[in-house]
Design the sequence.
């Protein structure tokens, strides 16, 4: 009798566990996805990349960022506010973002939750959409546009006052709606030359680069670029927001160390400024020029916005870092 | 045997008593529940209205700063329009202080301000030097942001009023509302072109 009762109890417990598992998996499968592409605009690889980025954003910054891509959504402002509430984005803290892209209306809206209104004000969101996201959309690179604007969101969130992020659940219409510029075609890069002569020193070249970025000069043929850099930039989407960001970063990063060997030089900021990357310069045609191709290959940024070295990619610039101790991931110690 | 029979059966008197108790409970519970629902919905209307008012206040306070920034780029011909927008914003601010709970009047004032602000922005947008930079984008985002906040607050307020008014229209709702002296809520909406007349002195 006792054994039968124990067997019965175990059976009931097992049945309950199985029911719980089924319920949990059903709930998980019904949880709203981070990226919902209802029109098949993104490839599966792009969708996964966005999902991964947004998952990290939630993990690192507690920002619940969802994307909905669809057509014929009607009044996008109203749709975004209603959808934000329906999905309960950002939970009780209201730290949510909802990007809605209506491909038929060629419009997008980034709706900001109450908990982030102080961090991402309307003017910033409009700037991010107009000067970063839609520049990529115009070039037919929707996933890259969303990813590139997430970088700006992260930079803004990291510099924000934590008290500014205290909020309520839901959203109240904050954010911005703009034309999405899908199918418009990439903007042609400018042809404006540098303003004035550049002295023949790596520091002067870096200063001229900062000035060009501050003036949003996206001419890929500037004299301060190496030959390979010009070729690379000619096929790149360089957005006004990226140039603003670069100008700000350069203005904020002092050059402390100059390491040179033959026709190559690296300018480094103090190591305490992990957000200031080293700059690579090469001497070509009797002048110093920025080697952004080599930089691109050798310098990486982590989730914490600190630079690290890809040791295998340093090539002819390895000499400039032989005085540094690096950790296993290539971060200077 | 007789004792077990009396334990197993319920006599007619008990049933009648039970029905009377149940009816009595229903007579008390139904109005009580309807009353609670009405109070809850009236509070939801009040909360939604507070949201509308705070967004209107925000808009009225945003306008002077915005217009001051725009003015630097405007020509002499736009001065009348600038002054008109200033007056509209001032009118809305004053009305917010005076006209608590007057949705229709505030809606008219807000519609008038939105209309003239739209004209001003359109005039400002004609200036190429303003349009080419980020400044115009910033102004536009601030204005549209405040406009959209009001629209969202309006949508939620009107939905709360609709729910509340629907409760008042029910059989028990009307009865309880009459007893409590509750009135239907006003929607926050202005008929097209129903702008409150404004006298501007220059």
Sequence:
């Amino acid at each position: 009798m006792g054994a039968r009762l124990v067997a019965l109890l175990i059976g009931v417990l097992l049945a309950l566990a199985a029911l719980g598992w089924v319920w949990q998996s059903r709930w998980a499968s019904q949880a709203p996805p981070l990226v919902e592409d209802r029109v098949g605009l993104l490839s599966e690889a792009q969708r996964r990349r966005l999902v991964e980025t947004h998952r990290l954003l939630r993990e690192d910054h507690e920002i619940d960022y969802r994307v909905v891509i669809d057509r014929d959504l009607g009044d996008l402002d109203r749709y975004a506010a209603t959808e934000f509430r329906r999905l309960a984005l950002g939970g009780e803290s209201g730290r949510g973002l909802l990007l809605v892209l209506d491909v038929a209306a060629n419009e997008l809206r980034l709706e900001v939750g109450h908990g982030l209104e102080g961090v991402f004000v309307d003017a910033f969101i409009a700037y991010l959409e107009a000067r970063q996201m839609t520049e990529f959309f115009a070039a037919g690179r929707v996933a890259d546009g969303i990813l590139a604007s997430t970088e700006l969101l992260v930079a803004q969130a990291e510099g924000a006052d934590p008290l500014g992020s205290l909020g309520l659940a839901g959203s109240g219409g904050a954010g911005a709606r703009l034309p999405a510029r899908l199918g418009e075609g990439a903007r042609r890069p400018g042809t404006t030359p540098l303003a004035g002569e550049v002295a023949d020193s790596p520091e002067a070249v870096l200063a001229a680069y900062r000035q060009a970025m501050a003036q949003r000069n996206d001419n890929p043929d500037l004299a301060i670029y190496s030959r390979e850099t010009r070729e690379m930039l000619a096929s790149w989407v360089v957005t006004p927001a990226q140039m603003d960001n670069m100008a700000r970063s350069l203005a904020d990063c002092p050059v402390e160390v100059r390491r040179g060997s033959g026709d190559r030089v690296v300018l480094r900021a103090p190591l305490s400024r992990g957000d200031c990357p080293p700059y690579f310069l090469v001497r070509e045609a009797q002048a110093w020029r920025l080697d952004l191709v080599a930089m691109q290959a050798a310098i990486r940024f982590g989730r914490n916005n600190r630079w690290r070295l890809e040791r295998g990619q340093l090539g002819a610039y390895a000499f400039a870092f032989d005085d540094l101790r690096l950790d296993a991931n290539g971060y200077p110690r | 045997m007789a004792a077990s029979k009396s334990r197993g059966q319920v006599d007619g008197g008990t049933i009648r008593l039970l029905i009377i108790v149940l009816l009595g409970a229903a007579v008390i519970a139904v109005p009580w529940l309807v009353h609670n629902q009405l109070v809850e919905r009236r509070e939801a209307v009040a909360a939604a209205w507070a949201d509308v008012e705070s967004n209107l206040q925000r808009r009225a306070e945003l306008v002077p700063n915005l217009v001051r920034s725009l003015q630097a780029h405007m020509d002499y011909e736009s001065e009348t329009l600038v002054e008109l927008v200033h007056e509209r914003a001032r009118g809305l601010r004053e009305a917010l202080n005076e006209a608590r709970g007057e949705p229709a009047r505030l809606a008219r004032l807000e519609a008038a301000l939105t209309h003239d602000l739209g004209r001003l922005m359109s005039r400002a947008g004609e200036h190429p030097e303003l349009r080419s930079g980020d400044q115009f984008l910033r102004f536009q985002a601030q204005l549209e942001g405040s406009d959209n906040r009001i629209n969202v607050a309006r949508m939620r307020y009107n939905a709360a009023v609709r729910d509340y008014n629907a409760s008042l229209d029910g059989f028990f709702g009307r009865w309880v509302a009459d007893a409590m002296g509750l009135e239907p809520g006003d929607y926050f909406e202005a008929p097209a072109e129903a702008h409150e007349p404004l006298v501007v002195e220059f």
